[in-house]
Write a structure and sequence with these properties.
By secondary structure, this protein is mainly alpha-helical. It folds into 2 domains: 13-290, Ferritin, CATH 1.20.1260.10; 303-344, no CATH class. 66% of the residues lie in helices and 2% in strands. The protein contains 15 helices and 2 strands. A hairpin with a 4-residue loop joins strand 1 (275-277) and strand 2 (282-284). Helix 5 runs antiparallel to helix 8 (171-199), helix 7 (144-165) packs antiparallel against helix 8 (171-199) and helix 7 crosses helix 11 (247-264). The two termini are 43 Å apart. The relative contact order is 0.12.
Length: 344
């Protein structure tokens, strides 16, 4: 669902670039670094077996694993409504969407594994709280309208970010994004259809969807990440083609696209300072409460604890499956068992 990443405040943008240069020079890899950056400048894809700076590898593992975690945790807010969907059709669509998110997480974990990260390490980092995932999934889904607003606003925001990542310089990540973006477009249409239906429904239904927009608007803007002047990793990510647009550019693109659509449905946006700026031909919002964003990504959001409890319980409940698969793999490698095709 979500392709945004959370920047660590521990390292400034200039520090990240200095670190990358220092590591390259310390290893005597100036020529390799120059060739690597020339390839990126030509639009070539970097593949798993190619030489890459260790900082490029580290940033990708951080970013891709965080993206994978977001897809997996992102199943929970909407998954809670599968049994409460208002019709069989809505239930089937939502179930398919949640299954898609699980698949997206798998694609992304595999992409991170091509960089040397292991599934066990990534899951341990998530469950221990060391790894981050998107802030947006730590808010509750109180009504059916929340499912629609997540699909319409949150998935739309994710599509803008993921479309950019489909042009990422790292091949496995870019290719995963192509498949994910196609499916996310269906997710967005599903949410948009729910919002349109409720906005054109009874007064109670319209009030319900308006309430959902009021609660999800600001967290959706935050999910693009901190402002560019407070985003420590953006400079090196853009320099090496992992990202091609900044957080603020993506956020503004989203605002300019979604505001007219919501207004056309007769819905309002919970920002008294929102206005159209003729000079820049764009919509300008009031200040975003970044203190709330920091609280959420530090584990103090409305649903952080609940999300991790559910994920930890699912991981523990699935231990027997992992153990059985491992035992079978070991027996197969030892020639103790064979496939059905070999037996016949």
């Amino acid at each position: 669902m979500d392709g945004t990443t959370i920047d660590s405040p521990e390292t400034s943008a200039s520090d990240a670039e200095k670190l990358a240069h220092f590591e390259a020079r310390a290893a005597g890899d100036d020529e390799k670094l120059a060739y690597f950056e020339a390839r990126i400048a030509r639009g070539e894809k970097i593949e798993p077996g190619d030489w890459m700076p260790s900082e490029y590898r580290r940033q990708l593992i951080r970013m891709i694993s965080q993206h994978a975690h977001s897809e997996i945790v992102g199943q929970l807010p909407e998954g809670a409504w599968i049994t409460r969907a208002p019709s069989l059709r809505r239930k089937m669509i939502l179930l398919a969407k949640v299954q898609d998110e699980a698949g997206h997480g798998e694609y992304l974990y595999h992409a991170a594994e091509t960089l040397g990260a292991t599934r066990e390490e990534m899951l341990e980092a998530l469950l221990s709280g060391k790894a981050k995932y998107s802030n947006i999934f730590n808010y509750p889904t109180l009504t059916w309208a929340d499912v629609g607003v997540i699909g319409y606003l949150v998935d739309f925001a994710a599509i803008l970010n993921q479309t950019m990542l489909a042009h990422c310089s790292y091949g496995p990540y870019a290719r995963a994004m192509v498949r994910i973006c196609m499916e996310e477009n269906f997710h967005k249409k599903q949410g948009q259809d729910i919002v349109i239906t409720l906005a054109r429904g009874t007064l109670r239904q319209k009030a319900m969807v308006q309430d959902a927009i009021n609660r999800w608007w600001w967290p959706t803007l935050m999910m693009f990440g901190p402002p560019d002047n407070d985003s420590p990793n953006s400079a090196v990510l853009i320099r090496w083609g992992i990202k091609t647009r900044t957080n603020d550019e993506l956020r503004q693109d989203f605002i300019d696209k979604i505001v007219p659509e919501l207004y056309a449905l007769g819905l309002t946006i919970p920002d008294p300072e929102l206005h159209y700026d003729q000079a820049s031909s764009s919509w300008k919002t009031g200040p975003i409460q970044w203190d709330e964003f920091r609280q959420v990504i530090q584990g103090r959001g409305p649903c952080n604890q609940e999300r991790m409890q559910v994920r930890t319980r699912a991981h523990e409940d699935g231990a027997w499956v992992r153990e059985a698969m491992q035992a079978y793999a070991e027996r197969y490698s030892a020639g103790v068992v064979s496939t059905s095709n070999e037996e016949h």
